[in-house]
Amino acid sequence: QVQLREFGGGSVQPGGSLTLSCAASGYNVGAYCMAWFRQPPGKELEWVGLVSHRGTKSYTDSVKGRFTLSRDNAKATLDLEMNNLKPEDTDKYYCWKGVDEWCTSDTRHYSDWGQGTQVTVSA
Question: For 48-58, what is each residue's pLDDT tens digit?
Fold first, then answer.
């Protein structure tokens, strides 16, 4: 069974840092793209960033320079280091697994996600 679990969420003050982790199991983790999405209340999923199986990284403009993705295929984990957090980063974050050779921000190329982990940035 493919399973993805998110960890590391919490509450921090603006300007603080937080690292989220995604633990994957049930498939060959090193063969697929992995990505983080977040979902504002009442809105659609927002793509945050991705890492291809070859290590190519991409980020949405709002987090460039502040967030850093890394994956460890041996440990089957995907981490999201979040620095200089802003109130607009407050959201529930989900880890997604790619389903084909395409590695993009389009949710149609992903499946399987965990329960999400909540990040709250406030004073």
Answer: 999 999 999 99
